[in-house]
Design goal:
Structural class: mainly alpha
Distance between the termini: 42 Å
Low-confidence stretches: none
Number of helices: 6
Mean pLDDT: 91
């Protein structure tokens, strides 16, 4: 699938790709030179860990990219999840004992490449899908592909901030400053 976009749309796609890359870089940078054990360490009052954050952001980005193409059926139905399904979903926030930081970083790189390809090739950034039923979405809401890409960017940036705090609490390393 290729686009024959106007220069303005090409600029918009370039801007989206550059901002996604920037925020992904800062998130990944927080894990530099860590062992798997360190990536699993909880260093704050939060349950979040650096490995768990990378894994979570990759899973969420993959779900949102799939949503752009397939609509709300692409993601989980939070309104009817069983306890077992909720526990399984919760594992997407944790670097499990059989997982490695290198493995979740590689998966994140693959997810990012697929999302970037979608940004480059989606014929229309205005294409919209109805949001899935969930307590945190407005009833009957719809999001355009553009809004989904901006949401991915926002979530990545937000979790980069979380990762900075976790890393600084772990060993004093900072992403900036």
């Amino acid at each position: 699938m290729t686009t024959t976009a106007s220069p303005l749309l090409d600029t918009e796609r370039t801007d989206l790709l550059e901002m996604l890359a920037k925020h992904r870089h800062f998130l990944r940078f927080t894990t530099r030179e860590l062992t798997d054990e360190q990536a699993r360490m909880r260093t704050t009052a939060s349950e979040l860990t650096l490995g768990g954050l990378i894994k979570h952001v990759a899973a969420v980005e993959a779900n949102w990219a799939k949503f752009i193409v397939e609509g709300p059926a692409a993601g989980p139905d939070f309104s009817s999840m069983s306890e077992a399904e909720i526990a399984e979903w919760s594992n997407k926030f944790v670097l499990l004992p059989d997982e490695t930081l290198a493995g979740v970083l590689a998966e994140y790189e693959q997810v990012a490449a697929r999302t970037d390809e979608l940004v480059r090739t989606l014929p229309d950034l205005n294409v919209a899908q109805p949001l899935p039923e969930a307590p945190w979405f407005e009833p009957g809401g719809r999001w355009s592909a553009r809004r989904v890409f901006m949401h991915i960017m926002t979530e990545t940036a937000q979790h980069s901030g979380h990762a900075d705090i976790i890393r600084e609490s772990l060993d004093g390393a900072k992403s900036m400053g």
